[in-house]
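Feature request, filed as a ticket because there's no other form

It would be nice if the structure record came with a short human-readable summary line next to the tokens. Right now we just get the raw output. Example of a typical job, pasted below so the devs can see what we mean:
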Amino acid sequence: MAMTASVLMTMLIMFFDCAGFPNDDGGRAPSTQAAVRSPLPNDDTALKSAPDFNLKDVSGKTVRLADFKGKVLVVNFWATWCGPCRAEIPSLIKLRNLYHDRGLEIIGISLDEDGPEPVAGFAKQFKINYPIVIGSLTDVNAYGPFDSIPTTFIVDRQGKIRSTHLGMVSYGEIEGDIKTLL
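Raw output as currently delivered:
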């Protein structure tokens, strides 16, 4: 029972943080949380390794973080119902188009709870060109925990988390982080 309440509370926090809060006239105001970027440590020994995962993609194939060893990764936690998450997708597509040949991979970890079919349809509709896997609260806790989406992690070729962006992140911010690692 306590775990169910914890999961429900986390999902409510994620929903309201992403979707915004009701304002006085009954509409929805945008979330006031701006993107927050964690600084890069100066000492490589202080960097945290990105937690491995074994998740199913939208076609049912198992995808592991270890499958991308030696690549620079953008690990993006998102959901189809999240407006800021949707707004980031064109930037992620463009970054993959520009830098994939230099060793960049983007992995979208969907936190949708309706299964892979709606996510697959969404990915097709938005022409997402990077792997999409279905995640859970377990994955959120392994990487954080964090309480809002989108949340994006930049992982270097050695599998170390170089930066974390809580909230919507711009094309330029991600590009600036990955260019130094490619």
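Something like this underneath would help us a lot:
The chain has one domain: 33-179.
Residues 1-17, 19-34 have pLDDT under 50 and may be disordered.
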